[in-house]
Amino acid sequence: MCVARLVPGQSDWVEGTEMQALALEGVRKVYGKGDGAVAALDGVTVGVRRGSFTAVMGPSGSGKSTFLHCAAGLDRPTAGRVLLGDTDLASLGETALTRLRRDRIGFVFQAYNLLPSLTVGQNITLPSRLAGVRPDAGWVREVVGRVGIADRLGHRPAQLSGGQQQRVAIARALVGKPEVVLADEPTGALDSRTGKQVLSLLRELVDTLGQTVLMVTHDPVAASYAHRVVFLADGKHAGSLEQPTPAAVAERMTHLGEW
Ligand SMILES: Nc1ncnc2c1ncn2[C@@H]1O[C@H](COP(=O)(O)OP(=O)(O)OP(=O)(O)O)[C@@H](O)[C@H]1O
């Protein structure tokens, strides 16, 4: 078994990969070359415990998107490594990485990315069908019930509100039973009341199903739904906050720079 070498004593350190869904170890990502080179991530070490809800926050340009892209295997680190469970993403070629994203990671984006010509039910099961897997009907029923869209399965996305569309996207992410759900500003396009309902749903999925969720956000209220907030500043890990409140997150952000 491969044990991530995170730093003992830090709250981001988790004993062994059986406890850890995802780990970034000393990840550095440099874009460009020579004088124009930018270190978007500069030696970031973060472990994500299984069954936890983690938010990543930081000022604009602090490296949040790069963090998420490296975690998802969409970007390859310049140095350091990313582990999904026991799998070192650097050991995989492009085809295997694509398969890993499809089979082991669920994605939720700000723009729901639903296919307009398909029904809700078809959108939810599309990734499984593309993977050549027959979706488990019992699990699909459970997921659509939990996210609250059981009565909308025959609708097209355009017939749903923004909040309902994001629930569909969350259901789509869950159907494949991913090891981790990566969410990029999942409430960025929603009004605050609907956004809070979606965040409560994400938290509930973590608390009741043991789903692991990692979410990038600009919003201290959104971050407060997580168990833990990891802060980035200038591409570096700038501390964490357990059991965050919106006020405590906002206070920390104020010290990190413009956001
Ligand atoms: N493809 C790229 N080429 C060159 N520089 C990049 C690239 N992607 C990101 N960067 C730079 O890396 C740094 C971190 O960018 P990143 O998008 O990860 O930050 P962020 O925290 O997500 O920002 P925001 O909150 O504004 O979306 C920035 O200085 C950015 O300009």
Automatic annotation (TrEMBL):
<dbReference type="GO" id="GO:0022857">
    <property type="term" value="F:transmembrane transporter activity"/>
</dbReference>
<dbReference type="Pfam" id="PF00005">
    <property type="entry name" value="ABC_tran"/>
</dbReference>
<dbReference type="InterPro" id="IPR003439">
    <property type="entry name" value="ABC_transporter-like_ATP-bd"/>
</dbReference>
<dbReference type="InterPro" id="IPR015854">
    <property type="entry name" value="ABC_transpr_LolD-like"/>
</dbReference>
<dbReference type="InterPro" id="IPR027417">
    <property type="entry name" value="P-loop_NTPase"/>
</dbReference>
<keyword id="KW-0067">ATP-binding</keyword>
<dbReference type="GO" id="GO:0016887">
    <property type="term" value="F:ATP hydrolysis activity"/>
</dbReference>
<dbReference type="InterPro" id="IPR017911">
    <property type="entry name" value="MacB-like_ATP-bd"/>
</dbReference>
<dbReference type="InterPro" id="IPR017871">
    <property type="entry name" value="ABC_transporter-like_CS"/>
</dbReference>
<dbReference type="GO" id="GO:0098796">
    <property type="term" value="C:membrane protein complex"/>
</dbReference>
<dbReference type="GO" id="GO:0005524">
    <property type="term" value="F:ATP binding"/>
</dbReference>
<keyword id="KW-0547">Nucleotide-binding</keyword>
<dbReference type="GO" id="GO:0005886">
    <property type="term" value="C:plasma membrane"/>
</dbReference>
<feature type="domain" description="ABC transporter">
    <location>
        <begin position="22"/>
        <end position="259"/>
    </location>
</feature>
<protein>
    <submittedName>
        <fullName>ABC transporter</fullName>
    </submittedName>
</protein>
<dbReference type="InterPro" id="IPR003593">
    <property type="entry name" value="AAA+_ATPase"/>
</dbReference>
<keyword id="KW-0813">Transport</keyword>
